[in-house]
Amino acid sequence: MNVFVTGGTGYLGRPLIQALLARGHAVKALVRAGSERRLPPGASAVPGDALDAATFAVPAQSTFVHLVGTPHPNPSKAAQFRSVDLRSVAAAVQAARRDGARHFVYVSVAHPAPVMRAYIEVRRRGEALVSESGLDATILRPWYVLGPGHRWPYALLPAYRLLELFEATRESALRLGLVRREEMVRALVASAEDPPRGIRVLGVPEIRRAALS
After folding, report:
1. pLDDT, mean of residues 140-166
2. Is a pLDDT exceeding 80 seen at residue 152?
3. Do 203 and 173 touch, CB atoms closer than 8 A?
4. How far is CA 79 from CA 25, 76, 88, 89, 124, in A?
5. DSSP label at residue 205
6. pLDDT tens by residue, 162-212
7. Concatenated DSSP letters of 51-119
């Protein structure tokens, strides 16, 4: 399988590329000029600007995995969500349609939620761009991805377990649950290897199940 990845030097991108290569897939990754060495060995670098579809080409019939986004999102970064997250998914969808990508994979965010409203709004707009593109697509909606540098919410796991026990709070606790980085990577690989017809949406429970497949 041919896979094209944006955000391939980031928190999810590097381990995803490593996992795809280990499973025998060919990976091309969009990088800024000078960042080629940050890609895992075995990936082919495609220099370009993730905010401008005219600067890069996508292999025909490939799976496009879009992972560009503002690192460590918080409410103070609303302008960056619009200028980076939204612009990049618009460029990615444009390039994927233009070049005949087979399947588009987009990491959104769980919603609705009582916090991070600017971030959620931008990601929902990104989902709309994907859904309206006509591409077969998988949209993943994690809430928080635990892993290196993202460990403080581990302390919340006992509270999540308790909330999942009660009917009144179970749905929200599951939808806004925490997933580990390795679970996200496995779910992304499983999604890439099993393209849907139309639009497929994976919330936190579905991400966890996909990670076990």
Report:
1. 86
2. no
3. no
4. 36, 8, 14, 15, 16
5. H
6. 888 899 989 999 999 999 999 999 999 999 999 999 999 999 999 999 988
7. T-GGG----TTPEEEE----SS--GGGHHHIIIIIIHHHHHHHHHHHHHT-SEEEEE----S-SS-HHH
Whether omega for the bond prior to residue 40 falls within 30 degrees of 0, making it cis, is: no
Torsion of the alpha carbons at 178, 196, 66 and 140, rounded to the nearest 10: -20
Mean pLDDT of the residues in the chain: 95
- Sorted by where each begins, the domain ranges of the chain are 2-146+178-212
Comparing C-alpha atoms, which of 137, 112, 136, 133 is closest to residue 123?
112
As separate numbers, helices (DSSP H) first and strands (DSSP E) second, the chain gives 8, 9
> Tokens standing for 112?
């609705």
Token pair 């497929």 in the structure block, residue: 200
Q: What homologous superfamily does CATH list for 2-146+178-212?
A: NAD(P)-binding Rossmann-like Domain (3.40.50.720)
* Predicted pLDDT at 155: 79
Token code pair at residue 183: 């679970």
Provide the b/e sequence for 144-171 (b: ≥16 CB within 10 Å): bbbbeeeeeeeeeeeeeeebeeeeeeee
